[in-house]
Amino acid sequence: MLRPQQQIERQIEQHWQPLARHIAAQIAQWHGASGPLLIGLSAAQGSGKSTLAALIAARLTKTHQLKALTVSLDDFYLTAADRQHRAATIHPLFATRGVPGTHDLPLLIATLDTLLHGTGEVSVPRFDKSTDDRAQSPARRQAPLDIVILEGWCLGAAPEPEASLTIPLNPLEAAEDPHALWRRHVNHHLAADYAQLWTRLDKHLHLKAPGWPTICHWRAEAETTRPKTTHSGAAMTPAELTRFMHHYERITRTLLREPPRADMTWTLDAQRRVVE
Predict the structure, then answer these.
(1) Which domains does the chain have, with CATH numbers?
(2) How far apart are CA 133 and CA 231, in angstroms?
(3) What is the value of pTM for the model shown?
């Protein structure tokens, strides 16, 4: 029986490497026609989007001689202090990173613009999930780049109708957001500043997961094979992980029903194989 790491390596070789080759060739053609490109790659947690984005960037660099970089939406979370301030002044659930309203979008947009259109060394933030805060030492990259791949779980997500926000979707919403204040704020961010960010994408790629139970299984699998951490520094227990996932459930289920209007979409099965 294959160990978890062996399973991941086989999955990369059998599924992600061929897909990365196909996507990289397409992006190389887009670049030839358009110049610097900002490519969005969206997919649910645990789907393999970070692995795929890194493979695409590596192939663009090695095979097509393009200067490519992957940037994660996760690296642009607000600092712990900023999220605590939002928790104190708006709603306690904003202390937890992840949903729209917990990212530093002005910093992200300024960084993307400089990477693609600036010159010289660019400071790119990194988020340290072991401390639940922004890392003290950012990454350093040289601008300008030919292609930046922005990967994130909620890229392209659209706001919900106001009426659909009134009924709690899970125990977290029922117990900790009974008046829908938190989810209305999240929805407002999707309709405003996040929608503006989506319009900056030159192309959008999307991996569609089979369903919410599979996504939760993938995320639990990732917790086992490559432990993430809570703000306390300890690995999440099953109960903590379930609560954590409830923060993402509403937007994720909406994306499953109504995928973003991507230029290219691949449907995955429970083993993360492309089936369509």
Answers:
(1) 17-267 (3.40.50.300)
(2) 8
(3) 0.92
In 30-146 the beta strands, taken as DSSP E runs, fall at 37-42, 68-72, 120-124, 127-128, 133-134, 139-143
In sequence order, which residues have a C-beta less than 8 Å from that of residue 252 and are 6 or more positions away?
A: 44, 45, 153, 212, 215
- Per-residue pLDDT of 140-164, as tens digits, reads 999 999 999 999 999 999 999 999 9
For residue 73, how many C-alpha atoms fall within 13 Å in the half-sphere facing its CB?
A: 26
**What is the helix (H) or strand (E) element at residue 44, kind and residue range?**
none
Task: Tell me how far apart the 2 most distant CA atoms of the chain are, in Å.
Answer: 53
Query: Are 77 and 125 a contacting pair, CB within 8 Å?
Result: no
CB 115 within 8 A of CB 216: no
Q: From residue 156, give the alpha-carbon distance in Å to each of 74, 245, 249, 252, 255.
A: 15, 19, 16, 11, 9
DSSP 77: B
